[in-house]
Specification:
The protein folds into two domains: about 100 residues, Dihydrofolate Reductase, subunit A (3-Layer(aba) Sandwich); about 100 residues, Dihydrofolate Reductase, subunit A (3-Layer(aba) Sandwich), CATH 3.40.430.10. By secondary structure, it is an alpha/beta fold. The chain contains six helices and nine strands, in the order βαβααβαββαβαβββ. It has a nine-stranded mixed sheet with strand order 5-4-3-2-6-1-7-9-8. The protein starts with a strand and ends with a strand. The structure holds NADP nicotinamide-adenine-dinucleotide phosphate. NADP nicotinamide-adenine-dinucleotide phosphate (NAP) binds next to strand 1, helix 2 and helix 6.
Length: about 200
């Protein structure tokens, strides 16, 4: 059975995903409320932080932490061991496709292969569910989130709306109409909103 899939993203008041300072402490404090079994992240999000990941202290895997599953059909991620040692996740899982380039022979990262050219996100979630995952949190404000939404794979959506207008950039959503059921909104003193919705299919 497919796990419950939640997605949280930080956006500006005009719906942009970058170009402003994200309140990371609040973002991760709120994200941790789901206590996800698996954090699902795209390769581009990992690559955008790779220098910081490589430089971060190696605290070692956190046994009670979620599994980090990274969609990486082009095998671009190299920082697997640093991610595993970061102290947040219990382990890492590379999500590859049939046509993913060959991995180094000494690669030790666990992998799950689905799809032909691209990772099959629905099959990934089914497999994670069969392996016992109940909650998966998608950590993306871009292509991965849009792909999951297009495939009707997201059950719950949370927006951390920062009180700033950016004026230009990439909007987090610009595809088909999506019906949402409002679950709750929290207003913080600095004007940041935490808006939660169920995705109605
Ligand atoms: N504001 C926020 O809350 C927030 C949250 C997370 C990240 N970010 C920022 O967003 C930026 C990255 O966003 P992004 O959109 O470039 O990358 P992303 O969210 O990491 O998405 C790219 C990943 O999605 C995969 N993907 C896309 N469409 C797919 C499909 N149909 N089927 C299967 N896999 C698919 C790509 O696969 P391939 O492996 O084939 O390329 C790639 O691994 C970074 O700068 C990051 O810091 C912001």
């Amino acid at each position: 059975m497919r796990p419950h899939v939640v997605a949280q993203l930080a956006v500006s008041l005009d719906g942009m995903t970058s170009g402003f300072d994200v309140d990371l402490a609040r973002f991760y404090a709120l994200a941790s409320l789901w206590q996800e079994d698996v954090t699902l992240i795209g390769a581009d999000t990992i690559l955008a932080q790779e220098a910081a990941v490589l430089a971060a202290p190696r605290r070692g895997p956190r046994a009670e932490g979620p599994l980090l599953a990274v969609v990486d059909s082009r095998a671009r991620v190299r920082s697997w061991e640093s991610l595993r040692q970061l102290g947040y996740w219990s382990d890492v899982l590379a999500l590859y496709a049939d046509q993913t380039p060959e991995r180094p022979v000494d690669a030790t990262t666990r992998e799950l292969v689905t799809g032909y050219e691209q990772v099959d996100l629905a099959e990934v979630l089914e497999t994670l569910g069969r392996r016992g995952a109940q909650t998966v949190r998608v950590d993306s404000a871009g292509a991965l989130l849009r792909a999951c939404l297009a495939l009707d794979l997201v059950d719950e959506l949370a927006l951390l709306v920062h009180p700033v207008l950016v004026g230009s950039g990439d909007p987090w959503y610009d595809t088909r109409q999506l019906a949402l059921q409002h679950v709750g909104t929290e207003v913080f003193k600095d004007g940041t909103l935490w808006m939660r919705y169920c995705v109605a299919i």
